[in-house]
Design goal:
348 residues; five-stranded parallel beta sheet
């Protein structure tokens, strides 16, 4: 049985339907069918869709967030007030959203394994904080996830009560709030949104997990409200993969190897991608998001061209994000300087 890679109507994770599709989708790799006389395999389209969304790799950050989050959900089960939460913070592209969504997925699947007969549960909610958010906008995000109708006349109290009523009835245990950096406590609306989140956490028997870019530098822990958040939330920082030490280089190589094992290319041999781990780090700056895009893009090209293996030429053809490209330029400049210094030392 192969995975479900058929195209469908766009359902974002911020809707119940989109979230459940993410949780229950099957990522089993497709088989490698024989090549036809036209030079194409019967399942090339299936493999293209598969490589466009390669399976998530269990990075150290994903493992840490999942382990810490599970502990918190257990500790919070019988906590009446002042429940503990978790904040995932770091630079863009370091895997924050991946970490919290994979934790949410693991938690929801565990709930369904414990209660297979009860499909009415909504164990996990995933929402994002809109830019320039107001308390009502945030409440509407929760309502949108649940599919609750919201009229223009509905005030924030009505929406909040409806949301909390449904989530209590459906035994919600985990609330994931992404893009928390959009919350500016220095503004009146930002402070009010923070209060709204706190109110939700007091009304719901759930553990709250936030994720955002450099949360500690955006004022999230400033002022009275910020100090209260700091006293109740643990933080886990996401960072680019480094390679300064032997252990760091081994971790990066293991990540590349794991991604390589997910490929479904006819002529790609194990180790071909791992052998380019230094190049891959120079291209991506150790950013998991950039690495994933690079390998997925090269895989798609390898199938389209019929090469059926990832070469450096395929990797070079993939245009990455600005941050990754700038890192590559800086890396090439540093390496060039080191070579010049070595040449001068050798000739002295």
């Amino acid at each position: 049985m192969t995975g479900d890679f058929s195209p469908s109507v766009h359902e974002p994770l911020t809707t119940k339907e989109g979230w459940r599709r993410f949780v229950h989708r099957c990522d089993e790799p497709p088989g490698l069918s024989p090549v036809s006389q036209l030079g194409k395999g019967d399942n090339d389209d299936l493999r293209l869709r598969y490589h466009s969304r390669l399976a998530i790799v269990a990075t150290p950050t994903v493992s840490t967030v999942t382990r810490t989050g599970r502990r918190l959900t257990v500790l919070n089960q019988h906590q009446i007030s002042a429940k503990r939460g978790l904040i995932i913070t770091g630079a863009a592209g370091t895997g924050k959203t991946t970490a919290i969504t994979e934790f949410g997925k693991a938690h929801e699947l565990a709930v369904y394994r414990r209660h297979p007969e009860d499909q009415s549960r909504i164990p996990v909610v995933y929402v994002t904080v809109p830019p320039a958010a107001t308390p009502r906008m945030l409440a509407v995000e929760f309502a949108r996830f649940l599919g609750l109708p919201v009229t223009q006349r509905a005030n924030i109290t009505d929406i909040t009560n409806a949301v909390c009523g449904v989530l209590v009835d459906t035994r919600c245990e985990l609330v994931l709030v992404d893009e928390i950096h959009n919350l500016n406590l220095a503004t009146r609306s930002g402070a009010e949104v923070s209060d709204q989140l706190k109110y939700f956490s007091e009304r719901l028997p759930a553990t709250f997990v936030y994720a955002g870019i450099d949360a500690e530098h955006t004022g999230l822990f400033s002022g009275t409200r910020g100090r209260q958040i700091a006293s109740r939330f643990a933080t886990i920082a996401t960072r680019p993969f480094a390679r300064s030490t032997v252990q760091q280089r081994q971790e990066w190589q293991a990540l590349v190897t794991t991604l390589e094992q997910t490929l479904r290319l006819r002529k790609h041999k194990p180790g071909m991608l791992t052998a380019m781990d230094d190049y891959l780090h120079d291209r991506t700056g150790g950013m998991i998001g950039s690495l994933s895009h690079l390998i997925r893009g090269a895989s798609v090209d390898a199938i389209i061209t019929g090469d059926e293996k990832i070469t450096k030429a395929h990797l070079e053809a993939v245009q990455l994000d600005h941050a990754a490209e700038q890192h590559r330029v800086s890396s090439m400049t540093r390496n060039g300087r080191k070579r010049n210094v070595s040449k001068k030392a050798a000739s002295a």
